[in-house]
Design brief:
- By secondary structure, the chain is an all-beta fold.
- The chain is built from no helices and ten strands.
- The strands form two sheets. Strands 2-10-9-4-5-6 form a six-stranded mixed beta sheet, with no helix packed on it. It has a four-stranded antiparallel beta sheet with strand order 1-3-8-7, with no helix packed on it.
- Strand 5 and strand 6 form a beta hairpin.
- The radius of gyration is 13 Å and the shape is globular.
């Protein structure tokens, strides 16, 4: 079955960095656009970044542009989110998702706090 497993979250100070990973299985990873979403407490889930099947094209929410980088390794069925210059407002649970599959992983908690 389709499975998405996010990892790499944690507690970090403002200005710090984290790298999230999402390991996918159960579908042809290399044929799917992949996306990272996040959900902060009492807020709706929002799209953070998307990457094309080849990895040649990426899009970002304005709030993370210039700070976050999405990438993928189709040989490892894994999508990444490099997060730099983290801010307090980046605190959320981060999820990855494959286009065309209504499946969510368990997410990984990112907490930015001094």
């Amino acid at each position: 079955q389709v499975q998405l497993v996010e990892s790499g979250g944690g507690l970090v100070q403002p200005g710090g960095s984290l790298r999230l990973s999402c390991a996918a299985s159960g579908f042809t990873f290399s044929s799917k656009t992949m996306r990272w979403y996040r959900q902060a407490p009492a807020k709706e889930r929002e799209l953070v970044a998307s990457i094309s099947v080849s990895g040649g094209s990426a899009n970002y929410a304005d709030s993370v542009k210039g700070r976050f980088t999405i990438s993928r390794d189709n040989s490892k069925n894994t999508v990444y989110l490099q997060m730099n210059s983290l801010k307090l407002d980046d605190t959320a649970v981060y999820y990855c998702k494959a286009d065309g599959w209504p499946i969510w992983g368990q997410g990984t908690q990112v907490t930015v706090s001094s």
